[in-house]
Specification:
globular, 3-stranded antiparallel sheet, 7-stranded mixed sheet, Rossmann fold, 2 domains, Enolase-like, domain 1, 11 helices, alpha/beta
Length: 232
């Protein structure tokens, strides 16, 4: 059951009986869909929202899924199945963790993450973004760029906006790393060609809830959560 929800400026949180899950708040898509009576709904019903073409509904659905998967108890279950978890937040940063491997390689990043341009000093970097910044490629360039890469980092918001299946298909020649708080931490994704899952577990619900409520962007997870990376 859904115990509470928070649709913040940048992040959406769902608290369920299993835990608390986060997903980026996306807007747009299909209109005419109202968001009412979220609290008290069966969790499975809300999780099905991830299939909605209304992006705000899809954000709620992804957060509901992550409230089950991105929890300390689920990570214990996963690691007991011989999946490696990185404990230290700095080490768990996917980009930092893969630095030795991506040197001089062709690397594409879906989503303009903070300070991601610095990777261009050690690799042949291509940044693809729906709202391009200086030097970025538009996301439509994925069709041409991704098949040529050695490594592809994909933002977890691709689950919400429904681009993930095609991005995985296009990246079939590369090592694929899913990155960000929206990423569901489930080894099932390894069956679809994913090399690593770099997601987030909320450890301090009070801090994370307050920061998201106040419109925080990354502070919520630096203070109240732990980034981790598991590899197949």
């Amino acid at each position: 059951m859904v115990l509470d929800c928070m649709v913040g400026l940048h992040w959406t949180l769902i608290r369920s009986e299993k835990g608390i899950g986060a997903a980026m708040t996306l807007k747009g898509g299909q209109t005419g869909k109202e968001l009412t009576s979220i609290t008290g709904r069966p969790l499975k019903e809300l999780a099905a929202y991830v299939k909605s073409w209304n992006m705000l509904q899809a954000s709620l659905g992804q957060a509901a899924i992550n409230s089950v998967l991105n929890t300390p108890s689920n990570i214990i279950t996963i690691t007991s199945q011989a999946v490696t978890k990185t404990a230290e937040p700095d080490e768990a940063n996917a980009f930092a963790q893969f630095l030795p491997e991506i040197a001089s390689k062709k690397v594409a990043v879906i989503g303009h993450f903070p300070n991601i341009e610095s990777l261009g000093k050690i690799c042949q970097l291509s940044i693809l973004e729906r709202e391009p910044q200086d030097g970025d490629y538009p996301d439509t360039a994925s069709e041409y760029i991704l098949p040529l890469q050695d490594y592809v980092f994909i933002t977890g918001t691709a689950f919400i906006n429904k681009t993930m299946p095609r991005l995985l298909e296009l990246s079939g020649n590369a090592k694929i790393i899913l990155v960000g708080p929206s990423v569901p931490i489930s080894p099932v994704l390894f069956n679809y060609g994913v090399e690593a899952l770099a997601g987030m577990v909320i450890l301090d619900e009070k801090i994370s809830w307050q920061v998201v409520q106040e419109g925080g962007k990354t502070k919520a997870f630096k203070q109240g959560g732990q980034m981790l990376c598991i590899r197949r």
